[in-house]
Design a protein that fits this description.
- It is a single chain.
- The chain is α+β, with helices and mostly antiparallel strands.
- The protein has one domain (14-110).
- It contains 2 helices and 6 strands.
- It has helices at 23-37, 107-110; strands spanning 14-18, 47-54, 57-66, 72-78, 83-87, 93-99.
- β2 and β3 form a beta hairpin.
- The longest helix is centred in the N-terminal third of the chain and has 15 residues, at 23-37.
Length: 111
């Protein structure tokens, strides 16, 4: 992955490119990235997944982790631009990842 900006600077969003191969690998990457953002133990916090639909057609997935003290972290994978947007506990975007490989949204998820 290639960094676009310095992630150690508060309020600065980082941009990256990723060659993730599968939808399951994408889920793992998102879960790890969100947990690392707030120093959460990955095994202790489950991630939910919600399909996003536009005009009746699946257009992406929203991933959410609910942590302690009402912390809520999320990521949105927009399938058309094939981009993942990560949001911190304040709702501010902290990372944008351009995916090189495309994934299909499973019909069971999109229904």
């Amino acid at each position: 992955m290639s960094d676009g900006t310095d992630p150690s600077v508060p309020g600065i969003m980082t941009e990256q490119t990723s060659t993730i191969e599968t939808l399951d690998a994408l889920r793992g990457f998102i879960h790890t990235t969100l947990c690392d953002k707030e120093s959460l133990v990955r095994e202790q916090f489950l991630m939910s997944e919600t399909p996003l639909v536009l005009y009746g057609a699946p257009c992406g997935l929203q991933f959410t982790i609910r942590g302690p003290r009402s912390i809520r972290l999320s990521a949105v994978w927009a399938s058309d631009p094939n981009m993942v947007y990560f949001y911190d506990a304040r709702g501010e975007r902290f990372l944008k990842v351009q995916l090189k490989n495309r994934f299909e949204i499973p019909m069971a998820t999109a229904a």
